[in-house]
């Protein structure tokens, strides 16, 4: 397999954790988002959205991080990253999608740039935007996690699931933008526990070969 | 089952199509988003994100539309809404997530309201925002669909998949906001074909009991 990656991409970070947990060695190709390498024709031919990650597996070229996680789960089922029951899987996918659909896409680099270039927002206003959607999303996540009997050391029981793979990169980003995480003790507790797992620790942005 | 629904919610629209295709009769509870019913404590207790849809199945309360679609696929496998091969499933999920992650969350009601109240954007500027993210997302989708051998009458072959369930509501919204869809002939062709299927037609916003 070959992963098109960028150390600070939180969507790529999710896939790095999955590859580590499942013991899959993947070749890496680094696409420098801040230098705009993703917008060049060579990468647009790989991924029409011009996003990272892209995962190549033989002749298959896979895009969208959550679709990639589901593909890895199906093709490399051990260790499982989804629970054994349909309702549990639905809960884990919902937790993952609160992040993957309703937090991260509002706050990624292309949106922050658009707020600056098209709407003329300065850095303080862009940071306010960022923190607003973190607060909205994390308040919902905290409510979904704190009161639920299936929540364990991690988001769903004590073993990593897709929910944790999405949570840890999002918490990393929130800390980078100096968001106040004190209202979310369950999120903080789970992120701390997950980060101690080597597969998560080794996937962290600062550990990647392209980190600056 | 019981679906918490709102006729104009495109995430709920996806689930309505799935229920129709799979022949599942669900009780309906209507949550009026424009009247703010979703922000009331009664509904926040049902869904901590205060979004529609929510699907109740016995003791299970399911949120996030794509997680709900996957749950329905697992618990009611006929007719299948995902292909039989892992790479095909990954493609369908990626197409669905281009919409569910990278178009719809940027353009939903809470974001448009925030642009108005927090950033002071007038209606013309909000519509510009809307159309910008439709154009970004549909350009990528068109490239993913037009050139791919697996694209058929619908997004993946000739039978409905999760990708079509996400595409039709997004095209409906784009038309409502008067987006120019002429650059996306494959998207328009597929949406037209899917809309002729009764399960899709019956799920359309204007056909719902709470339509205004």
From TrEMBL, chains A, B:
Domain of life, per lineage: Bacteria
Enzyme Commission number, as recorded: 5.2.1.2
SUPFAM superfamilies from the UniProt entry: GST C-terminal domain-like, Thioredoxin-like
Domain (GST N-terminal) ranges: 1-80
Domain GST C-terminal: 85-212
Keyword annotations from UniProtKB, A to Z: Isomerase
Molecular function in Gene Ontology: maleylacetoacetate isomerase activity
Alphabetized InterPro entries for the sequence: Glutathione-S-Trfase_C-like (IPR010987), Glutathione-S-Trfase_C_sf (IPR036282), Glutathione_S-Trfase (IPR040079), Glutathione_S-Trfase_N (IPR004045), GST_Zeta (IPR005955), GST_Zeta_C (IPR034330), GST_Zeta_N (IPR034333), Thioredoxin-like_sf (IPR036249)
Protein family: Belongs to the GST superfamily. Zeta family.
PANTHER family: GLUTATHIONE S-TRANSFERASE YFCF (PTHR42673:SF21), MALEYLACETOACETATE ISOMERASE (PTHR42673)
Protein's name in the database: Maleylacetoacetate isomerase
């Amino acid at each position: 397999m070959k992963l098109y990656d960028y150390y600070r991409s939180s969507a790529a970070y999710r896939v790095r954790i999955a590859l580590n947990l499942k013991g899959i060695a993947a070749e890496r190709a680094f696409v420098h988002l801040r230098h705009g390498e993703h917008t060049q024709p060579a990468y647009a031919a790989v991924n029409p959205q011009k996003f990272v990650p892209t995962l190549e597996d033989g002749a298959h070229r896979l895009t969208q991080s959550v679709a990639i996680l589901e593909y890895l789960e199906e093709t490399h089922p051990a260790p499982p990253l989804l629970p054994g029951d349909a309702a549990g899987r639905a809960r884990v996918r919902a937790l993952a999608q609160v992040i993957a659909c309703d937090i991260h896409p509002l706050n990624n680099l292309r949106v922050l740039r658009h707020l600056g270039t098209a709407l003329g927002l300065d850095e303080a206003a862009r940071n306010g935007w960022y923190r607003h959607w973190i607060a909205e999303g994390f308040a919902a996540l905290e409510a979904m996690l704190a009161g639920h009997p299936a929540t364990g050391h991690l988001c769903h029981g004590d073993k990593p699931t897709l929910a944790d793979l999405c949570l840890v990169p999002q918490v990393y980003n929130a800390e980078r933008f100096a968001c106040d995480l004190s209202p979310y003790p369950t999120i903080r507790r789970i992120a701390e526990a997950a980060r101690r797992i080597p597969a998560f620790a080794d996937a962290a942005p600062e550990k990647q070969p392209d980190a600056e």
